[in-house]
Amino acid sequence: MAEKLEQLEQHLEQFIENTRQMGIIVSDFQPQGQPVLNQKIHAMITGMQEIDRCKGQLQDVQVPLEVFEYIDQGRNPQLYTKDCMEKSLAKNEQVKGKIDALKKFRSQLILELDKVFPEEIAKYKAAREMVKEEHS
Amino acid sequence: MAGDERWNYGNMDMYLPQNPPSSGAISQNYTQQTESLPHRTDGEPPVTQNGQTTHEDSAFYLLKDLPGIPRPGGPHHVSPGAQGPVDITGSVNLIQHHGLEHSFHKFCGKKVKEPLSNFLPNLPGFIDTPGLQDGSSLRSLIEKPPIVGKELYLLSGPQLQGFRLHPGPIPEQYRLLHQQPPAKKKHKNKKHKREHNGGASSATSGEKEKKTKKQKKHEDSEKKEKKKKKDKKKKKTGST
């Protein structure tokens, strides 16, 4: 996959460079530059053909749409990756906090219920042990 | 006990007959009442004929997956929350779990530069400007996709005749497209310059320090000589 992406990247860079050179030729055109321009036009078409061939190998590559917003704003797309990582870490910490709080609540609740309903809690604990054995 | 207050002992009155008979008759009536309760299979608490719940079988009516309690959809039905313990939860460091520590340190540990040109340094032209300004945004490409699927053929000789251009420069409004952003000076040169300047300044400062030290020494020696002369004069005047 990385090789295919590198190949596509090379084709694109060559295409862009070719286009840039065409722009320089055209910006101050001289008659002796016509054959060179024709050659550049040919190179542009072959470049487009090569890029078109690459698309078949990259059908399964998925790109999140949010990255396009970063690029359209002229921002580094790696910032999107960084933002995703930071958000997932923050969410992970948030959920861990909730799980820890609920675990503490559960243990406290069973403790207090055991004082009030000892028989029922004993039955409940026995039933939970049976369920655990079944699932394991 | 505190829990006794939760139970509504007023409901127990329905098991008591209006004319108090012997104790045996009371227990028989109680058992008859419980046996006539309809056995519910939908997980809801068992309800008496009067529509009030009992606590005899309702202790675990919320726990549908426990043995001895019929499941609402049948014996093979698995309720959504009864799939057993889940190994991966939010209590685990998911970044570590998925092996993304290296990526995390790469993107979040170091400072990622803001402009797009830092990600694509080899691209010519101004790429840090927003795409909406010149109509080159990727969003517009998604909203209005170009015509695709046609074959690309090389141009023939007569077709290339259409690209014959007139000599001369292009109008000024189109010249800006080929302007390049100012080349970023390498920091190494600046560093070298700074080091060189710093070295030179340090050398001059060292020289200055040497000079000041020399001057001080010279001044000190002069002062000493002056003192000696004064002392000699005093002695001469004192002797005479």
TrEMBL record, chain B:
Quaternary structure note: Component of the Mediator complex.
Biased composition annotated in UniProt, kind: Polar residues: 21-36
UniProt feature, compositional bias: Basic residues: 183-195, 225-240
Subcellular localization: Nucleus
Function: Component of the Mediator complex, a coactivator involved in the regulated transcription of nearly all RNA polymerase II-dependent genes. Mediator functions as a bridge to convey information from gene-specific regulatory proteins to the basal RNA polymerase II transcription machinery. Mediator is recruited to promoters by direct interactions with regulatory proteins and serves as a scaffold for the assembly of a functional preinitiation complex with RNA polymerase II and the general transcription factors.
Protein name: Mediator of RNA polymerase II transcription subunit 19
Keywords for this protein: Activator, Nucleus, Transcription, Transcription regulation
Gene name per UniProt: MED19
Organism: Branchiostoma lanceolatum
